[in-house]
């Protein structure tokens, strides 16, 4: 798991090497949307769901309002990937 600065995250998405994945709650996502992001609430974040979203070959950049759920989702995803 790697933490990216906003500039690094933007650079990854602009070069099509990364994709923003919004892991906020439904209520949060309804009030504000991140342009170009895919919405995937925290609970179902896993490798299979990301593959279904067709972001293969791109870095998933997990985002939420405070960073807490994004960090938890990233840690869970990293643990799943390590245990392949």
Features:
84 residues; three-stranded parallel sheet; 4 helices
**What integer is the average pLDDT?**
85
Distance between the termini: 15 Å
Give the uncertain stretches in residue-range form.
Answer: none
Order of H and E elements: HEHEHEH
Output the radius of gyration.
12 Å
- Beta-strand percentage? 5-15%
Q: Which outline best applies? A: globular
What's the number of helices? 4
The biggest sheet amounts to:
3 strands, parallel
Largest sheet strand order: 2-1-3
Helix content: 40-55%
Structural class: alpha/beta
Q: How many strand elements?
A: 3
Task: Describe the protein in words.
With 84 residues, the protein is α/β, with parallel strands linked by helices. Helix content is 43%, strand content 14%. The protein is built from four helices and three strands; from the N terminus they run αβαβαβα. Strands 2-1-3 form a three-stranded parallel beta sheet. The two termini are 15 Å apart. The mean pLDDT is 85.
In short:
The chain has 84 residues and is of the alpha/beta class. It is 43% helix and 14% strand.
Task: Give the arrangement of secondary structure elements.
Elements: H1 6-14, E1 18-22, H2 26-31, E2 38-39, H3 47-52, E3 59-63, H4 68-82
Parallel strand pairs: 1-2, 1-3
């Amino acid at each position: 798991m790697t933490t990216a600065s906003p500039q690094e995250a933007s650079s990854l998405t602009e070069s099509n090497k990364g994709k923003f994945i919004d892991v906020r709650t439904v209520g949060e996502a309804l009030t504000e949307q991140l342009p170009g992001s895919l919405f995937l609430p925290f609970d179902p974040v896993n490798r299979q769901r990301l593959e279904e979203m067709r972001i293969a070959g791109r870095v998933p950049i997990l985002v939420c309002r405070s960073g807490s759920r994004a960090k938890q989702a990233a840690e869970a995803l990293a643990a799943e990937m390590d245990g392949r």
